[in-house]
Specification:
three-stranded antiparallel beta sheet; 322 residues; 19% strand
Length: 322
């Protein structure tokens, strides 16, 4: 095995190890969601963020120890990229592996070398014909199974261990939303009307999301259905005094939480009222939080830095904006 092949193989092994560790963390996401273990979820989220940089740094350090990177040998690194592409021919995550390769190269060398000659600006391996062990998405056809039954199948597909608070109510809400979209466009169900749902839940903060799209004729309607594991407040903490409803907690139970209040009477349910808490106190309407902020994220590994002189880092509380 020559030097370029050895470097390419080491980078791929670094990515494979990273992906395996990442998979181990995410594999327990449903378990954490079902147990409402938000502390463990926050720890897992931090681990996922730091894991990538750690693996990249380890790979770069190994290559620097074993091979001479300075001065940069153009012939070797052109061949490294070619050898890396050959290693990806039967790989299940070639695009992610290419991005990891870019991160290693960009961490090791200066930006004037960030060109398509050495890094992946475009995908080199097609993912069209990759056969996944688990299908990427599941298709549901309301014309075959029935309108409500297809919604039932979507909601129960992921086999969550915790019950729905009001399953029939939730199905009605979803059905109502679908009907509203069709009514707005004066559309009827076409022969190909279907739901395509990704075969994995997406977890973010305290919610799990069912993500998919509805296809009707030539129209495509992306959708996301949030699932919330609400922890009900015990009745001994709720007090009704005159026309006021009060809820009393210990300080250590609150911290930065979200309270959702719903009133139910005679089978009718009110809209959900949400109260955000910071340090155990309700957040005023004019108080800025990052919960609803719009943050744009760019994956810079595949782009050239056109003008390094216009870069400015601004620190805002615990967030860095670039």
């Amino acid at each position: 095995m020559n030097i370029s092949e050895e470097i390419a193989l080491k980078i791929l092994k670094g990515f494979n190890y990273h992906f395996r560790k990442f998979d181990e963390i995410t594999a327990k996401a449903q378990q954490r969601f079902e147990a409402a273990d938000w502390k463990a979820e926050r720890q897992a989220s931090r681990s996922r963020i730091t894991l990538y940089d750690k693996r990249v740094d380890e790979t770069v350090a190994f290559i620097k120890r074993k091979f001479s990177l300075n001065p940069m040998d153009e012939t070797i690194w052109t061949k490294v990229k070619t050898d890396f592409i050959l290693l990806l021919q039967d790989h299940q995550q070639p695009e992610l592996a290419e991005t990891f390769y870019n991160s290693v190269f960009c961490r090791a060398f200066t930006r004037e070398l960030y060109t398509s000659k050495y890094i992946f600006v475009r995908n080199a391996v097609s993912t069209v014909y990759i056969n996944s062990e688990v299908p990427t998405y599941e298709a549901y056809y309301p014309a075959n199974t029935g309108f409500y039954k297809s919604i039932t199948s979507i909601l129960t597909h992921f086999k969550l261990e915790i019950p729905f608070e009001n399953f029939n109510r939730d199905k009605r809400y979803i059905a109502r939303s679908i009907c509203k979209i069709f009514k707005k466009g004066n559309r009827t169900a076409e022969l190909n009307f279907q739901y395509q749902v990704i075969n994995a839940l997406f977890y973010r903060n305290k919610a799990a999301y069912i993500v998919g799209k509805a296809i009707n004729g030539h129209d495509v309607y992306p959708f996301a259905i949030p699932l919330l594991n609400n922890e009900k407040v015990s009745q001994d903490k709720i007090y009704l005094e005159d026309n006021y409803l009060s809820i009393r907690f210990n300080y250590d139970e609150l911290e930065n939480q979200t309270l959702r209040v719903v009133i139910s009477k005679n089978g009718r349910v009110s809209n959900i009222q949400t109260v955000q808490l910071m340090d155990g106190k309700p957040i005023a309407n004019n108080t800025f939080t990052w919960n609803d902020a719009i943050i744009y994220s760019l994956m810079i590994d595949r782009f050239n830095d056109g003008n390094p002189e216009n870069e400015a880092w601004q620190a805002s509380r615990s967030v860095l904006l670039h």
